[in-house]
Amino acid sequence: MAKKPWIECAPPEQATGDLRRAYDKILATRGQIPQIRAVMAGEPLTVEGFAFFYPENNYACRSIDRRLAEMIATVASVANGSGFGGPAHARQLAQITGDDAFAKSLLEDYTRADLSSQERVLLDYVWKLSRAPGEMRSSDLEALREQGWTDPQIVATVHVTAFFAYMNRVAEAFGVS
Fold first, then answer.
1. Which of 18, 36, 70, 82 could form a disulfide with 168 if both were Cys (CB 3.0 to 4.6 A apart)?
2. pTM above the 0.70 mark?
3. How far apart are the C-alpha atoms of 46 and 34, rounded to whole Å?
């Protein structure tokens, strides 16, 4: 049984106005309101704004595949120190790839995982962006391009990394399990 978050969450049957509209969008996509979304019920427009960033639609990214998006989410979450996000996205990765060992290796230490050089450079970028965003340089983008990453793929990588910087902090701030 999941523990209760540290903040009150409006259940779908009690939602009205903007929150009802936000919950309806989430219910249409997910069929349920995940706890990570319900903890933000006090700001319904925030809930609605993030209503389409879900694994099922690859976090609104088309230039990278789901496997890569979950790899990014896992590494970003570990870099963020999120006890919720890292394991949650490693489970997602294991589910879509059927490779529990690979997902676990990313969760424990992505630098030791069985990655292509192209993937390794990208995940190094994700780690740096997560841990030291003020140290990012144009040379970081050039290193990605040299490995064959396109600008749309780089944009998607930054989006997923930044999205999980946000979501990991929401989860940890409210005790989401």
1. 82
2. yes
3. 14
